[in-house]
Amino acid sequence: MNRINIRPYKAEDRSFLRTLCCDVADRGAPIENFFPDRDLAADILTKYYTDYESQSTFVAECDGRLVGYINGCMDNRRYGLVMFWILMPGLILKGIKHGIFFRPEIQQLLRGSLRNWRRMFVWRKSSFHSHQGHLHIGIAKDFRGQQLGHNLVNTLVGHATGWGAVELAASVHDANKAAGIFFESQGFVVRERYPMVQIRDGKEEHYHSLLYVKTISAN
To answer: How many Cα atoms are found within 13 Å in the side-chain-facing hemisphere of 48?
Structure first.
């Protein structure tokens, strides 16, 4: 197996990271399975990390090809403020310009989101504390099962320890068994379970959003 190098994110990695994030956003499958606008989805999923906390993102490189990434946030409260007050207005405007809100897939998605108020507001309120951070991880399909995820998480945990973060959290769809097994193997435990509704092709999909948390330093 060729050597894989994990290094800090650089500005020239932005396009790759946005592409890979959308390629794996639906439990390891492409974002288009439930969201039709890849460019807008990439903004929603990655813009905070690349533009406002890039020092907490790391990428994996093999023979000049970027094959994985981990986006980190060391302060959930700051993340919430930036998303709500700075990024969200621009994202809504971009969605209007793209005509996204008139598409039936998005109307279905919005209807489902309104039914997820507990996950959207109760969990957000309780988890937006400055001592807690979170992460998102993505690995190219042909590089999974090679300890790359383990190495990326360890890299971010070391970074978080230096920043004084107490916990790192990750949200996992309960149907994504592989992700659950992975996070448990990294020392994460399920702290909360929230019932969720997602609407695909006009049909409701009921599942639970699992909040995995890893304690990384004493309070």
So the answer is: 24
Domain of residue 21 covers 4-215
Closest residue by Cα to residue 59 from 6, 2, 138, 16: 6
Domains contained in the chain, number:
1
Rounded distance between C-alpha atoms, residue 174 and residue 27, angstroms: 10
Residues 139-153 pLDDT 10s: 999 999 889 999 999
Question: What residue type is 93 in one-letter code?
Answer: L
pLDDT digits (tens, 9 = 90+) for 184-218: 999 999 998 888 777 666 677 888 889 999 998 65
* Distance, C-alpha 43 to centroid of its chain: 12
Domain at 142, CATH number: 3.40.630.30
Other beta carbons within 10 Å of 164:
12
pTM: 0.90
The count of residues in the chain is: 219
> Which residues, 6+ apart, have CB-to-CB distance to 6 below 8 Å?
58, 59, 60, 61, 151, 152, 155
